Amino acid sequence: MTPELDLIGIVSTDLARSLAFYRRLGLDIPPEAEREPHVEVRLPGGLRLAWDDLDTIRSFDPDWTPPVGGTRVALAFRCADPAEVDRWYAELTAAGAHGHRPPWDAVWGQRYAVVHDPDGNAVDLFAPLPTPEG
Q1: What is the dihedral of CA 21, 115, 84, 108, to 10 degrees?
Q2: What is the mean pLDDT of the segment spanning 66-84?
Q3: Residue 115 CB: number of other CB atoms within 10 A?
Q4: pLDDT digit string (tens) for 8-42?
Q5: Which part of the chain has CATH 3.10.180.10?
């Protein structure tokens, strides 16, 4: 059997802040989950997304250190349309997220923007651009 991608994990230095960020993006994270050392949700399609508190990780792996030199994982959220990319970027940055790259029309045919979650992970926002009627 070939291994199948089942879970994407995020190690968080501030679990409450991280969960609030992803709740704002519409993920159905249980209330008061930030009181747990490990939180996971099942996404449409079955893939799971999980968060672990940094202190919990270090309790079973004291030598673990976060990667340095930039983000290692990016999550991409599809928006309904290009205006939604702009709206979500504005909402997330107004709520304190670091805006890495403001919305732009990418050459690959999408409206695109990049924010960072509270732990510095890249979160892409995108929507297809309208195609010229031909």
Answers
A1: -140
A2: 85
A3: 24
A4: 999 898 999 999 999 999 999 999 999 998 999 99
A5: 1-63, 71-134
Answer CATH for 71-134 from 3.30.9.100, 3.10.180.10, 3.40.190.10, 3.50.90.10: 3.10.180.10
Name which residue leads in pLDDT, 103 or 3: 103
Q: How far apart are CA 130 and CA 134, in angstroms?
A: 12
**DSSP per residue over the chain, as a string?**
------EEEEEESSHHHHHHHHHHTT--PPTTGGGSSEEEEEPTTS-EEEEEEHHHHHHH-TT-----SS-S-EEEEE-SSHHHHHHHHHHHHHTT-EEEEEEEE-TTSEEEEEEE-TTS-EEEEEEEPPPPP-
